[in-house]
Specification:
Layout: H1 2-5, H2 7-28, H3 37-58, H4 64-83, H5 88-108
């Protein structure tokens, strides 16, 4: 029943996946897409890392701490990139990624 043990964490991870995917799609609609390339790439990486960690948690993987550590690094990088852009979707993504990184840091400890 790992999904019950990690219920709050899974919710945080799913919110991060959704927010990163929304940011990615919104970045593709911006006038200067080339300026958004790093943001788009990090959104994709962050969403994938969070989804993989969530999947591992539902399996009660023995590697959750290690995966959470990696996920925290990726979430922080995504937040830092998104913070550079004034778009509301980027600012929201930065906020959510920062919260997710903090949660991942706690899981990794």
């Amino acid at each position: 029943m790992a999904h019950r043990i990690y219920a709050n964490e899974l919710e945080t991870l799913h919110e991060c996946v959704e927010t990163c995917n929304y940011c990615l799609e919104s970045c593709l609609e911006e006038k200067d897409v080339q300026m958004m390339v790093d943001c788009i790439r990090l959104d994709r990486e962050c969403a994938a890392a969070c989804a993989f960690l969530a999947e591992a948690m539902t399996r009660d993987s023995a590697f959750v701490p290690e995966l959470a550590r990696a996920c925290a690094v990726i979430c922080k990088a995504c937040a830092q990139e998104c913070e550079k852009h004034k778009h509301a979707h980027c600012q929201e993504c930065a906020r959510v990624c920062t919260e997710c990184a903090s949660m991942c840091d706690r899981l990794a400890a």
